Amino acid sequence: MHNDHELVQSHEQRFGKLHRKTGLTRFKKWEKHGDHEAVEPWPHGKSLVHSSQCLGIKVSEHGMIQTFEGPLAVCPGDYIATDPENTDSHWPVKSNYYAKNMEEVSP
Q1: Is 82 exposed, middle or buried (CB count within 10 Å of its CB: 0-12, 13-18, 19+)?
Q2: Which of 3, 19, 66, 88 has the maximum number of C-beta atoms within 10 A of its C-beta?
Q3: Residue 31: CB partners within 8 Å, gap ≥ 6?
Q4: CA 15 to CA 53: how far, in whole Å?
Q5: Which residues face 40 on adjacent strands?
Q6: How far from chain centre, in Å, is Cα 104?
Q7: Do 64 and 40 touch, CB atoms closer than 8 A?
Q8: 32 contacts 61 by C-beta, under 8 angstroms
Q9: pTM
């Protein structure tokens, strides 16, 4: 039986260590309809699976954004990320993930 350290060591020996590349991404906080041109109103009558952050918020207050993977829900308080190399590429980022993993840089 392997312990966790042995499994990590075995993985590193087979594949090497990787470091995720990071880059600059533009973010804009979305609170309501009209805050971001890529966010459309959530379609009337379409069901919505709420994240724990969105509980208690009316479906009509949510938005929808078209991503390369398909449409995704946008909750008030989410951040909309824009790829600086492809300004047609947007995706929502939950506010708790943003707060934990993102930091502002000066221009």
Answers
A1: middle
A2: 66
A3: 76, 77
A4: 37
A5: 64
A6: 16
A7: yes
A8: yes
A9: 0.72
DSSP state letters, 20-81: ------EEEE--STTS-TTEEEPPTT------GGGTTS-GGG-EEEEETTEEEEE-TT-EEE
Residues in the chain: 107
d(CA 105, CA 107): 6
Handedness of CA 75, 77, 78, 84 (dihedral sign): positive
